[in-house]
Write a structure and sequence with these properties.
Elements lengths: L12 E6 L5 H14 L5 E4 L13 E2 H4 L2 H8 L3 H13 L2 H11 L6 E4 L4 H5 L2 H13 L2 E8 L6 H18 L3 E6 L7 H8 L1 H9 L6 H15 L3 E4 L8 H54 L1 H4 L4 H21 L5 H31 L1
Parallel strand pairs: 1-4, 1-5, 2-3, 2-4, 5-6, 6-7
The structure holds guanosine-5'-triphosphate and magnesium ion.
């Protein structure tokens, strides 16, 4: 990226992702209110086309662009297909959305994004990936993975939820904050203990005597590595507890974005630039070769022998070029100049056509 942080402000983007009913929208509402109270009003995007009513006012609301019920009718889809198609249609306009954000970015401290309840619609769709990558290319973007704490107290459920979070981390590759929500109902200390002390989690697992327990044992070993990449906070979207802890985790995630995600992104962009350059050079070399063959004679293209080519060249000279100069020997120089000029034009045209074909192939 060419801009430097000192020149342009880049507010962090917080993507709220989580299982249906985990409290994403309520968390967004609470965070929005908290930031307003701190005189740092965020820019808010709602990407859930199926939400009936929003408890906060969104700067950009997918429901203003697409009506998912109409989409269902028009494309003959079920509810999930309707939501996915609505998100796809919205994504085709995402460059305009980015334009709106860019205009406001300098005056913002945070950008909040609410996602559809059906988690896989955002995390496993091309649209979700496009939106995440587009935002992350410009702004320090992170996932706030919202967890319904009271529903994850069973070791097996906890592990399933963590595995899901793990898959999203590896898919999005952006900094990740685990947000244990609803701590007013169930404090999240048990989860922190399970994540930091492997033996305590093993003990909890051993109480589960199902046939899955040995598989779960080995899975929990894998998760140990995953936990080291995470920031963990406990919040209550209802009472507002833990909001400042969450904002601290956001600051840490911004540092992680700058130190790890951004250099990797720049490396990938540089790799892509070099690959395109190499492809362009190869195309040009091929083009030059084609043109050189054209110069030698059309016969080469049609697979005729060398003698035949030579003969044809002589015939060509006779038929095409000579008669034009034969009667006008005085102005032979001028005519040769005209011929060279025409020849240059013909070459330029060939080159232009070949370049157009190359561009068409790129698209
Ligand atoms: N006790 C308690 N309830 C909460 C909390 N956060 C959300 N809820 C409740 O959980 C339910 C679901 O909350 P939503 O904010 O709609 O959850 P969501 O993840 O946006 O749901 P979908 O978008 O439908 O997937 C609601 O009844 C909320 O009142 C919390 O911190 N504490
Ligand atoms: Mg919601």
């Amino acid at each position: 990226m060419s801009t430097t942080a000192t020149e342009e402000k880049r507010p962090p983007v917080i993507l709220c992702i989580g299982m249906a009913g985990s409290g994403k929208t309520t968390f967004m509402q609470r965070l929005n209110a908290h930031l307003h109270a701190k005189k740092q009003p965020p820019y808010v995007l709602n990407l859930d086309p199926a939400v009936a009513s929003l408890p906060f006012s969104a700067n950009i609301d997918i429901r203003d662009t697409v009506n998912y019920k109409e989409v269902m009718k028009q494309y003959n889809l079920g509810p999930n297909g309707g939501i996915l198609t609505a998100l796809n249609l919205f994504t085709t306009k995402f460059d305009q959305v980015l334009g709106f954000i860019d205009k406001r970015a300098a005056a913002l401290d945070y950008i909040l994004v609410d996602t559809p309840g059906q988690i896989e619609i955002f995390t496993w769709s091309a649209s979700g990936a496009i939106i995440t990558d587009t935002l992350a290319a410009t702004y320090p973007t992170m996932v706030a993975y919202i967890i319904d704490t009271p529903r994850t107290t069973a070791p097996a459920t906890f592990m399933s939820n963590m595995l899901y979070a793990c898959s999203i981390l590896y898919k999005t590759k952006v900094p990740f904050i685990l947000v244990f929500n609803k701590t007013d109902v169930q404090p999240h200390d048990f989860a922190v203990e399970w994540m930091t002390d492997f033996e305590v989690f093993q003990e909890a697992l051993q109480k589960d005597k199902s046939y899955m327990s040995s598989l779960m044992n080995s899975m929990s070993l894998v998760l140990d590595e995953f936990y080291s990449h995470l920031k963990v906070v406990g919040v209550s979207a209802i009472t507002g507890a833990g909001m400042d802890d969450f904002l601290k985790a956001v600051d840490e995630a911004v540092v992680e974005y700058d130190q790890e995600y951004k250099p990797e992104l720049e490396r990938l962009l540089e790799e892509k630039r070099k690959r395109l350059e190499k492809e362009k050079e190869e195309q040009m070399a091929r083009l030059m070769k084609d043109m050189a063959m054209d110069e030698k004679g059309k016969a080469v293209k049609f697979g005729k022998g060398e003698e035949e080519v030579q003969q044809e060249e002589e015939d060509d000279d006779e038929d095409d070029i000579r008669p034009r100069y034969r009667d006008d020997s005085d102005s032979e120089g001028d005519d040769m100049e005209t011929y060279h000029h025409e020849e240059e034009e013909r070459k330029a045209k060939l080159e232009e056509e070949s370049f157009k074909r190359y561009l068409a192939r790129k698209e």
